[in-house]
Amino acid sequence: MDRTGRLYVPKQILYVEEDGLDYLISSEIIIVQNNKVGFVHQAILDCFISQRMMEKYFDGQNIENVIGEKCKQTPGRRYQLQIFLQNLLEYDSSDFILIGEKMLISDDIRFYIKYAFYEILGQIREPDDNIIQFVVDNCENELYGNYLLNNTIFSRKQYISILRNQSILERWYSETDKKVIIFNLLQSISPDLDEEDIFFIKKHAFSNKNDDEQFMRCFLHDITQEREDMFELRMMFYEHYPEFAKEAYIDIRTMMKQFEERTIRLISFWLKNKIKSQGRYVYRYEEELIDSDNAFLIDNEELVLNELLSYIPKESGREVKYSDWSGKYVHKRSIERACVELVKKATIVLCGKSPERFWEYYEPYMGQGYHVFNEIILTGLVSLPPLYSNQVIRYLITDLDKNIFDYTSEAEDELGLVKEALKIHGSNCNQEELLKVENLICQYISPNASEWYKRRIEQNKFKEYCPVYWSFWGDLQYELLQCLPEERIGTKTKELLRVLERRFNKIPSRYCNRVGHSGWVKSPVSDKNISKRQWLQIITNSKLKNRGQHRWTEVKGGFIESSYETYASDFQSAVKQHPQEMINLVLENKERVLPVFVDSLFLGVEVSEKLEEVDFSLIERLLHEFPCDMKSHRASYFCGIVEKISDANWSLEVMEQLKNIALKHCNPKLDNPNVTNLEDKEMKSCDMLHSNALNCVRGSAARVIGLLLWEDKELFSRFKDIIDGLTEDENPAVRFASLYALWPSYNIDRKWAGEKIIYLYESDIRMASFHNSKNMFFLLYPKYKERIINIIKKCFESEDKQLVEIGGYAVCEFYIQHNEFETIMMSVEFRTEWQIKAILDMAVIYLKVNDYREMAKDIILAYKNIDMDVEFPLSKMFYDKYLDVKNDREFLREFMKTKVSRRIVRAFVHYLEENAVSIVDYADIVIQLCENILQMEIETLREQWGIEDEISKLIISLYDETANSSRMADKQIAGKCLDLWDIMFERQLGSVREVSRKLMER
Prior knowledge:
By secondary structure, this protein is mainly α.
């Protein structure tokens, strides 16, 4: 009972020492006062125990007694220690340092308990002399200096400044093995580097490029967040190493608002050194520069012009029109265009503030015909006040060809800028200047006019095309005369304008660069429900043959083209929708129908989803009346039709056609594969072989024969010789396709088909990549044991990934079922990653087969220490739930001793979350896994990024379930968890601060 009359009665007290008060583990204490019962929160208990620690310290007890023995050093005790250390720091920093040093050197205090001292030390904003001296004296301490650096000094400017001011950084820079510490420390406070830090970097810069690359990591990715002195340092480094400037992130809009001079200098530097931003940083902001309504304005226009104007190319011609300086195409977003847009903005501001300065800046470039300068100058002319209208008009009329055209902006109209200038200044100039520009425009003839006229005459010589009326005069007059004030121009000019309006009313001017039209191409009858009679007129119209593909009419979404090909394509669509009706139409007029429409009919029938509605005899008649030749695509459509109706009783005539196609069709050609890719243009890989077998005509016929045999074994006698011929075809794609027919043949004549199949495998090992060959190996194994073993070995040792996979599957299965390939299976160190993955993939699948489950486990464990990335097949054990803790505990315990990866650990954690009622059931496996991982080399662990977080999750979950248990076994598990945490802190794995936070929450 205290002096206020309150009685504190511990609800649950564990007496482990004589005073009893040291090891209260209850979450609350009962309070009795005035006959009322209440509860005290855990925080009050923590404060109470931290106060008891303080009393013990001042009683002279050693730190081990103050904190308690290792088994008592729980996360709860760690938090109580933090309160004690904070109180001690406030009382006297020398006592705080003294007890901290004793903690750090004690072998009886856990590492994660010691970390409380580092954390409190790191929270001190203004270290006093005691703290400063401790840091200086111990930053190189052999026992805990590294921990002090990583957990107290790193990323804390106050401590890094101490090391710099005490010349420790200077000394470390001269030591090769410690130089990296300096780089890491400076990078950790890079947003807050002060003048002295920058002086330190300047002092040591530009003597070693490797060191300079490390110093440059101090620069922020986003320049807008950088202080001025850091930007100046950045530019110093860029001058020495221009190639690094391309990595800078520049948000032009933000930078122009806040750091205009900085932005201009950086762009100037890029242009000077011809550095491309490679589309990552600048390009996406260039459109903001183009937008005249965007949020920023140029404040220092003359700085922009002085810095950037000299980079604008003084050139004309195609090389400038289509260069990075041109905005002619929307996809061009270059630093050069950003420069142009900044100059244009600066020019507009200059014209508003100091119009006379505009003429001074641009006088050297006026009248020269420089394309990019013309764009800029015309932009400025539009912005000049009316006071300068006469001067603007006089400049324009000195040379129309050199002065008025805009070839480089994104504007569709090359005369757009001069038209704006004429509208503004044509209304304000005097009558004399207006008359001059009016007459000059009316008399203008383009230097290219004669060439345009010659082209028009040449084009119209070819009578098969419609005549063209390409304009060679009048376009410019029509465009510009409209911009002059109507009330001020002469009568003749007005009459000319009326004539030109009739001429160009619906015809685009040659100076208007319209965006090209695009879209689908269809015939005039596309998507229209036209009658049979109309279709008959089309498919028998011999004049269509002479129609080229140039007669396109633009419509919304595409083009209308009245050509042979588009009508044929639309007829195929009509057949697809109405197969029976169109087949009848063609058969009734078979003598008149053009061949291209017959082919369209076949293709439409093949792809139609309404074949079940068509009378089978009608389809047979179609195939009989229009037999296939051995060159056209019709044979391919023929095979497709028979394939879709493979269960029908086809006539002998159809069968004969199929046989002829299979052996005699010209497709495929031997040295010209139908399907290739960039990596394989000669059909060397299994993948390309398979694709060509599916996409060649003889291969299609072989596949159809196979389907017919699956439906009717009696057809085998008709096709046996054909299949034999296919297996001996000179083209490997056809030989591969013959397997589609040999597979059902094996069920009919096993001896004959088996010989053919094994012959194909042996003659070209790629044939073994045919689907389900692995099962065929098992079927052929009893009779052709040695030959099958050799084929599997050849697959397994191939360079083709697909064959290696098939071979690996077979090696594993034959080892499990027939005890074959023992040498291969046991020589783990000589296997490639592909081979091992295939073997393990199959072994994991056999975990589901009870008779072979134990053998599969042995195979997996045999490969447990390989130095390869095989995490995917092994992680399937957990994701696909092939294991359970009751039957596979020993296997899991052994497996967790292997070189496990992040993916496997994550899969195991997921497995526990999905299946475990209590993680305690898996405690031995979890502990084995964690111990295994924590024994790995630090560099190996860092390569498995994130694996520490996964095991931390396991340890915390296991500790939570066992910490408050009264069972001795659970107490031992909880103690083991504390040991594992200790190792994590000792090795500084993962985010130690994040783990500390999680521990505090407990």
